[in-house]
From TrEMBL:
Keywords: Electron transport, Membrane, Mitochondrion, NAD, Respiratory chain, Translocase, Transmembrane, Transmembrane helix, Transport, Ubiquinone. It is a multi-pass membrane protein. Residues 1-103 form the NADH:ubiquinone oxidoreductase chain 4 N-terminal domain. This is NADH-ubiquinone oxidoreductase chain 4. It comes from the Eukaryota. It is an enzyme of class 7 (translocase). Its EC number is 7.1.1.2. It comes from Pieris melete (Gray-veined white butterfly). Core subunit of the mitochondrial membrane respiratory chain NADH dehydrogenase (Complex I) that is believed to belong to the minimal assembly required for catalysis. Complex I functions in the transfer of electrons from NADH to the respiratory chain. The immediate electron acceptor for the enzyme is believed to be ubiquinone. It is found in: Mitochondrion membrane. One of its GO terms (molecular function) is ubiquinone binding. One of its GO terms (biological process) is electron transport coupled proton transport.
Length: 445
C-alpha cells in the first residue's frame, strides 16, 4: 500500500508545472489500473505494509475514490480555461485522494479516525475556494460543525476501547463485544452524520448547492461512503446491542427516506434535488447494515458503489446545463431536448440508474436490500414500496422538467455537448452497468 501512497505523493510537484492539468488526470487513471492489477488476490487481506492493508471492502471504495478524483479533473474544464488557482486545485484533489486512500486502507482504527476527519479539510477548501455564491461560507460551516460535533465522542470511544483491548487493529475487534449504550451511540453517530441519516442531513443539500462540480462529485461519490464504510467496520463490536435497538435506526432511515423522497418533488434547484435523493438512497443503506445479515451488508456495499457513480454522473449533467444557461433552476432549464438531443439520452440513462432499474448496480443493490429488510420485518415493505415508487417519480420529474417543455427564450449563446463531456458521462455510466457481470449470482439461489 505504501508504494501507491508514494505514487500519489510524487505526483504533487507536477501540479506546479505549466499545462500539466491533463497529465495529472492520465496518471490517476494509470494509478487506478495499477492498483486494480496488483490487488487481484482479495480473498484475504493483501498489500499489507505498516498499518495499511486492503480487503474486499476497502478495494472497491479505493477504486471508486481514484476513479471519481480522475473524473473531477475532467469535469473542471472551466478552471483550466480561466486558470483560477489551477495548481492549488490539483494539489487539493491529490491531497483529498491521499486522505481517502489512507482512510479506506488503514488497519489501525486511530489512523482511520484521523484520516476520516482529515478528509473534511480538502472538501471544505474546495467549497470555500471554488464555490459559486457567497452562501458557500454558511454551507462550509454547516458541513464543519455537523461533522465536528460528533467527532469528539468517536475519538473518546476509540480510546476507551483501546484501554479495554490494548490494540488499535480494526480486524482484532471481532474478538471484542461491548453492550454499553453510551459507547455505541458515541461511535455510530459520527458515521450517521457522514452518511447522512435523516435528522442530521441538512448539511448535505447546502454543501452540494454551493460546491463547485468537483466538490459535488466527491461529496456524492465518496464522502457519503465513508459513513457506510465506518459502520461496516465497527458493527462487529456491537452485534448484541444492534440486535436489540437496531430497529430504531431502520425506522428513522426508512421513514426519513420516504419524507426526503416527497421533499424531492418540491425542489426547483437541480443540485438540491439530486442531493436529497442521495439521502433517500443512503437511508436504505443504513437499514441494510442494521439488519446485520449477509444480504443486507452485501446489498449496502453494492448500492454504495453504484450510487457513487450514478449521483456523481447526475451532478455532471446538471453542471453541463449550468455552464450553458448560468442557472440550475428547473423553471429555466426547460426544453433541453431541442438543443442537445444526444445529451437527453444521457439524462435518461442516469435517471434509469437513479430509479434503480436494471441493468445498473443500483438495481441489484436495492434488490438485495429489499430482500434483507423484508426478511427482517415485513412492515418495512410499506416504506420500501413508497421509497422505490417515489424514487422513480422524482427521477422522471427531473427528466421531464429539464428535457421537455418550451425552452428558455432568453438564451442568446449556446453550444452542444463536446466530446470531453460525453466521455465524462460514459466513464460514469460504463462501470455502473458493466460491474453486474462480476456479481456472484450463485449466492442468490
Amino acid at each position: 500500500m505504501m508504494k501507491f501512497l508514494l505514487y500519489i505523493c510524487f505526483m504533487m510537484p507536477l501540479c506546479f508545472f505549466k499545462n500539466m492539468f491533463w497529465l495529472v488526470q492520465m496518471m490517476l487513471f494509470i494509478f487506478m489500473f495499477l492498483f486494480m492489477i496488483v490487488s487481484m488476490n482479495l480473498m484475504n487481506f493483501c498489500n499489507l505494509s505498516y498499518m495499511f492493508g486492503c480487503d474486499m471492502i476497502s478495494f472497491g471504495l479505493i477504486l471508486l475514490s481514484i476513479w471519481i478524483c480522475s473524473l473531477m479533473i475532467m469535469a473542471s474544464e472551466n478552471l483550466f480555461k480561466t486558470k483560477y488557482y489551477l495548481n492549488l486545485f490539483l494539489m487539493n484533489i491529490l491531497f483529498l485522494l491521499i486522505m481517502l486512500y489512507l482512510t479506506f486502507s488503514s488497519m489501525n482504527i486511530l489512523m482511520f479516525y484521523l484520516f476520516f476527519e482529515g478528509s473534511l479539510i480538502p472538501t471544505l477548501i474546495l467549497i470555500l475556494g471554488w464555490g459559486y455564491q457567497p452562501e458557500r461560507i454558511q454551507a462550509g460551516l454547516y458541513l464543519l460543525f455537523y461533522t465536528l460535533f460528533v467527532s469528539l465522542p468517536l475519538m473518546m470511544s476509540l480510546f476507551f476501547i483501546f484501554n479495554d483491548m490494548n490494540t488499535m487493529i480494526i480486524y482484532m475487534y471481532k474478538f471484542y463485544q461491548n453492550t454499553s449504550l453510551i459507547l455505541y451511540l458515541s461511535m455510530i453517530l459520527a458515521f450517521f452524520v457522514k452518511m447522512p441519516m435523516y435528522f442530521v442531513h441538512l448539511w448535505l443539500p447546502k454543501a452540494h448547492v454551493e460546491a463547485p462540480i468537483s466538490g459535488s462529485m466527491i461529496l456524492a461519490g465518496v464522502m457519503l461512503k465513508l459513513g457506510g464504510y465506518g459502520l461496516l467496520r465497527i458493527m462487529i463490536i456491537f452485534q448484541g446491542l444492534t440486535m436489540k435497538i437496531g430497529w430504531i435506526w431502520v425506522v428513522i432511515s426508512l421513514l426519513g427516506g420516504v419524507f426526503v423522497s416527497l421533499k424531492c418533488f418540491c425542489q426547483v434547484d437541480m443540485k438540491s434535488l439530486i442531493a436529497y435523493s442521495s439521502v433517500a438512497h443512503m437511508g436504505m443503506v443504513i437499514g441494510g447494515i442494521m439488519t446485520l445479515n449477509y444480504w443486507g451488508i452485501y446489498g449496502s456495499y453494492i448500492l454504495m458503489i453504484g450510487h457513487g457513480l450514478c449521483s456523481s454522473g447526475m451532478f455532471c449533467l446538471s453542471n453541463i446545463n449550468y455552464e450553458r444557461l448560468g442557472t440550475r433552476s428547473l423553471f429555466m432549464n426547460k426544453g433541453m431536448m431541442n438543443f442537445m438531443p444526444s445529451m437527453s439520452l444521457w439524462w435518461f440513462l442516469f435517471m434509469v440508474g437513479n430509479m434503480a432499474a436494471p441493468p445498473t448496480m443500483n438495481f441489484f443493490g436495492e434488490l438485495k436490500l429489499i430482500n434483507s429488510l423484508v426478511s427482517w420485518s415485513w412492515v418495512t415493505m410499506i416504506m420500501l414500496m413508497l421509497i422505490s415508487f417515489f424514487s422513480a417519480g422524482y427521477s422522471l420529474y427531473l427528466f421531464s422538467y429539464s428535457q421537455h417543455g418550451v425552452y428558455n427564450l432568453g438564451l442568446y449563446s449556446f453550444y452542444s455537448g463536446v466530446s470531453r463531456e460525453y466521455l465524462l458521462l460514459f466513464l460514469h455510466w460504463f462501470p455502473l452497468n458493466i460491474f453486474i457481470f462480476k456479481f456472484d449470482f450463485s449466492i442468490w439461489i
